[in-house]
Amino acid sequence: MSQLGLAAAASKALPLLPNRQRSSAGTTFSSSSLSRPLNRRKSRTRSLRDGGDGVSDAKKHSQSVRQGLAGIIDLPSEAPSEVDISHGSEDPRGPTDSYQMNGIINETHNGRHASVSKVVEFCAALGGKTPIHSILVANNGMAAAKFMRSVRTWANDTFGSEKAIQLIAMATPEDMRINAEHIRIADQFVEVPGGTNNNNYANVQLIVEMAQKLGVSAVWPGWGHASENPELPDVLTAKGIVFLGPPASSMNALGDKVGSALIAQAAGVPTLAWSGSHVEVPLECCLDAIPEEMYRKACVTTTEEAVASCQVVGYPAMIKASWGGGGKGIRKVHNDDEVRALFKQVQGEVPGSPIFVMRLASQSRHLEVQLLCDQYGNVAALHSRDCSVQRRHQKIIEEGPVTVAPRETVKALEQAARRLAKAVGYVPANIGGPLPITKPLDPPDRPVAYIPENTCDPRAAICGVDDSQGKWLGGMFDKDSFVETFEGWAKTVVTGRAKLGGIPVGVIAVETQTMMQIIPADPGQLDSHERSVPRAGQVWFPDSATKTAQALLDFNREGLPLFILANWRGFSGGQRDLFEGILQAGSTIVENLRTYNQPAFVYIPMAGELRGGAWVVVDSKINPDRIECYAERTAKGNVLEPQGLIEIKFRSEELQDCMGRLDPELINLKAKLQDVNHGNGSLPDIEGIRKSIEARTKQLLPLYTQIAIRFAELHDTSLRMAAKGVIKKVVDWEESRSFFYKRLRRRIAEDVLAKEIRQIVGDKFTHQLAMELIKEWYLASQATTGSTGWDDDDAFVAWKDSPENYKGHIQKLRAQKVSHSLSDLADSSSDLQAFSQGLSTLLDKMDPSQRAKFVQEVKKVLD
Fold first, then answer.
1. Residue 822 class from Cβ within 10 Å (0-12 exposed, 13-18 middle, 19+ buried)?
2. Measuring CA to CA, how many Å separate 254 from each of 77, 257, 289, 424, 537?
3. Sign of the alpha-carbon dihedral angle for 627, 633, 636, 639
4. Which stretch of 64-73, 245-254, 637-646, 842-851 has the lowest confidence by average pLDDT?
5. How far apart are CA 497 and CA 506, in angstroms?
6. Nearby residues of 291 by Cβ (< 8 Å), 6 or more positions away
7. Fewer CB within 10 A of the end CB, N or C, for the chain?
8. Of the candidates 315, 361, 364, 365, which has an alpha carbon nearest to the alpha carbon of residue 342?
9. First vs last Cα of the chain: how many Å apart?
10. Can you spell out the DSSP letters for 416-444?
11. Contact 575, 603 (CB under 8 A)
């Protein structure tokens, strides 16, 4: 519990909310309002029209209380609440019913702000970034009450006040009707819809909206309800709110029965004999996504495969659906005949789920281990419990600690659980932390073996493809690392996450084939029916542009470097697309690229092209500090295609003028025509020469058109793009993987050092200035000078990995910062008078060795 308020990233402080009652969801209540009947006397606000001042008597009373307390305790200035429901309406409490809530008077309680400052100091002392001072408890019943009591006890022991961390509960009408314990313990609560948990505690959208609305630092989902929904931690993390629980990756890893069993085997955790016991997968291959081939080997797909697997693991056995739960998709079998009879039932109960077979442990006990993890990789086993008393596979009684097994067995069980949790990274997500770079299983310097023929298949370019002989042809990114997102939506754009040499990245690519969009029937129209509409590849439509913008937003929030395999011809221009917001979606792409804070690479792949408005959207000038543009040698990049360019720049008149300047025969014919005109030649001679000129022009026009197109094609190359400065470099397709791996490592190293410099100097010191300073340090420490030495990516990464190369420069920056702060202190006489007190506080925070060293340094300066 001590990790609760330490080093988690969080949002701003929770504004204290008024104690007003509403009937709609999302209303803030006082926890004390349930323990006493509401005062039904009404105090109407006098409007300005009636001669009043527009302020209710109750509010005047509130203001007078604040004024009376101002001289006793330090009250903050009164600010409008986030949930303001008065609007000149009735106050259900009446003017004499003062707002009280567990010691809080009119939105403030004694010592609350002092406690918040203690939490901030406690967090800073342990190296945390932002303290957790308010938590939305997205659970009810025993889980919520136990959590709140634990927080109260820990806060009181740590800060001397059980109210140091504010707890906000969610309450359904059913909870309020029984005066639930967790509501009475909480500082505040919000009313949410009743009914099934899909309406409240399991509603991810509602939880996120409530957390944002209340401005809480963190959300605790407990167990059950939404706590095992991987969408909740992802959305909360994207909103800058701490999720007190495991990240989505861990939920996905252990949420699948087959996948979790394979991961357990790879982590050295004992498992029962099952259909996947023979499958050996390295742990590194399991963490992102278990290889599909290995996954299939662990499953059974037919009745006879299930029979054969049961014979291997032994009877009695269990036929289980991987997606099942709560007793669904599970059958016990004792012989082959029962397998043949019950296998189809398992398939029918959980349609589409993978199925596996596991040995049934007869006369066994159901023992569980409870784990507590933090964001630093520490995993503690908080004892164990016996859950053997069950009805229809559902636990009824949990007894702890375990007493039915020898202590050595329980210890081994706890150690195995800790190994499994560590293997899948079962810790809270760390916002703003370093990228989780893993050891690459796919060599970063291998060539890209997939070669596009006519068009570039985006998925093959990303993760490779098997050829006709079954040989794997590698793509740009690590094998089996690509996980596609939004797969069924806007299929003309491919988005997902992959790894490049073990470094996680976000990827956006373009579908080159024509895709079919399914438009479902409108249930409000009887004559409506489902339609299939073709969507051309390499074109942004409203949905695919929105998908691109959303992917950029998600990758940026996750801190992922970005790769865009740009292969667009432009935006769709139909009237319907304009009505559906194609221009707005395009501008959102530009805005999300402008604000992208991670390294971003735009690469026009082999057989790719970038045309029209697509250039405007992904141009590196949108965000020159972050975006770098590259192109493959065969890529095309003019705004217009050569044929279109000729239609504008070399029309028929320009081509005829060019013929007249270059073709000797036309030159002679035009000279003869001029001589005949000046010599008053006969009309038949003039007409004959003109016909000859027309015939020659008609004969040369196709040839000169081809020459003009070829001339335009020479300007439509990657070399020309590099010469014009619209791309940074031409990168051959086969070498693109190794090049971008080195470049990505370089950019990440630059970003880490630049962030450290800006943290010292301040945000006014731009990223560009930080990079200029880094370049100055690097070149000063190297034998080479100029751009040649600066462009060596491997050399820079090696230089960055040795802190002694720049440690002295960093220390000088820190000294300059302190000097400026002290100089500013000397300019203010009042601040200078308080300097001794501040120095005393600083010395108190130091340990004895630091204090002695500091005093010696000060003496040197004074002497």
1. exposed
2. 48, 7, 11, 8, 37
3. positive
4. 64-73
5. 5
6. 281, 285, 480
7. C
8. 315
9. 49
10. HHHHHHHHTT-S---TT--------SS-T
11. no
Tokens representing residue 291 in the block: 């290889």
Amino acid 785: pLDDT: 54
H or E element in which residue 698 lies: helix 683-714
- Report the distance separating Cα 450 and Cα 252, nearest Å: 30
Which has the minimum average pLDDT: 97-101, 460-464, 720-724? Answer: 97-101
Average pLDDT over residues 236-251: 82
Banded pLDDT at 672 (limits 50, 70, 90): confident
User: Highest-confidence range of 99-113, 314-328, 420-434, by mean pLDDT?
Assistant: 314-328
* pLDDT tens per residue, range 678-690: 776 677 778 888 8
Burial class (CB in 10 A: 0-12, 13-18, 19+), 844: exposed
Tens digit of each residue's pLDDT (9 = 90 or more) over 366-401: 899 988 776 666 788 888 888 888 876 667 888 888
Instruction: Say whether 648 sits in a helix, a strand or coil.
Output: helix
Q: Whose CA is closest to 393, among 334, 342, 318, 336?
A: 318
Q: Is the pLDDT score of 58 beyond 50? A: no
* Burial group, residue 682, by CB count within 10 angstroms (0-12, 13-18, 19+): exposed
- Tokens representing 770 are 């930080």
Write down the pTM of the prediction.
Answer: 0.53
C-alpha to C-alpha distance for 101 and 147, rounded to whole angstroms? 20
- Element of type H or E holding 674: helix 664-678
Are the C-beta atoms of residues 74 and 113 closer than 8 Å to each other? yes
- Contact between 20 and 107 under an 8 Å Cβ cutoff? The reply is no
For residues 293 and 440, is the Cβ–Cβ distance under 8 A?
A: no
pLDDT at 2 over 60: no
| pLDDT at 833 > cutoff 60 | yes
The DSSP bridge partners found for residue 495 are: 485, 508
Task: Give the tokens for residue 463.
Answer: 């993760």
The full DSSP string for 21-41 is: --SSTTEEEEGGGGSSPPP--
**pLDDT at site 81:** 34
Query: Rounded to 5 degrees, what angle do the CA atoms 106, 112, 116 make?
Result: 140
167 three-class SS: strand
Residue 531 banded pLDDT, cuts 50, 70, 90: confident
| Pairwise pLDDT comparison (323 vs 857), residue with the higher score | 857
Per-residue burial over 591-622, b = 16 or more CB atoms within 10 Å of its CB, e = otherwise = ebbeebebbbbbbbbbbbbbbbbbbebbbbeb
CA distances from 559 to 64, 329, 597 (A): 49, 39, 8
User: Predicted confidence band at 630 (pLDDT cuts at 50, 70, 90)?
Assistant: very high
Comparing C-alpha atoms, which of 32, 99, 23 is closest to residue 66? 99
Q: What are the angstrom distances between the C-alpha of 131 and each of 3, 11, 679?
A: 10, 9, 99
Q: What is the pLDDT of residue 324?
A: 61
The SS3 call for residue 230 is: coil
Q: Rounded mean pLDDT of the chain?
A: 79
- 3-state secondary structure at position 472: strand
Query: SS3 for 136?
Result: strand
In the β-sheet with 104-105, what is the strand arrangement from edge to edge? 100-101, 104-105, 108-109
- Sign for the CA dihedral angle at 456, 459, 462, 465 comes to negative
Show Cβ contacts of residue 511 under 8 Å, excluding neighbours closer than 6 positions: 458, 491, 492, 493, 494, 537, 538
What is residue 731's predicted lDDT score, i.e. its pLDDT?
A: 95
**Out of 100-114, 567-581, 723-737, least confident range:** 100-114
Indicate the pairing of strand 100-101 with strand 627-631.
unpaired
Query: Is the omega angle on the peptide bond into residue 406 within 30 degrees of 0, that is, cis?
Result: no
